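ugh ok fine here u go
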Amino acid sequence: MTARLALLFAFALTLAHAAPLPYDENADAKADLQRALSAAKTSGTPVLVIFGANWCQDCRALDAALQTGKNAELVKREFRVVKVDVGRFDKNLDIAEAYGNPIKKGIPAAVVLSPDNKVLYATRLGELADARNMSETGIYDFFKRVTQTAKGQR
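structure:
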């Protein structure tokens, strides 16, 4: 019995220290996107929209990778970020459709928008759908290319 209690306690501690979930399931994604676009007009910085869900391991891996090291520096320097929760492909689908349905081939998916809400780049082939198996360098290289493509479109 004591061993079970100790195991249960250890499990509870693990859950308490687990990373927070990256997608706010109660967020108003349209309002968040409008706020980011409004701020982007002032700064001239493009908006990076990341579509994903908390149940998706690749989405969580990508979010973790974008929070640290050179990936975090690149994203912070180049974009205003909005995370859009797609639930189980039953939420915010109208937002994805408005930008060419980048989630069609899987999540996470990304769209880069100009401050005036024009698509500068969008994943179309599930480029990030295997994010958990991409290295930090692989993710960095991907977003570096996206940055260059977006700059070329402005």
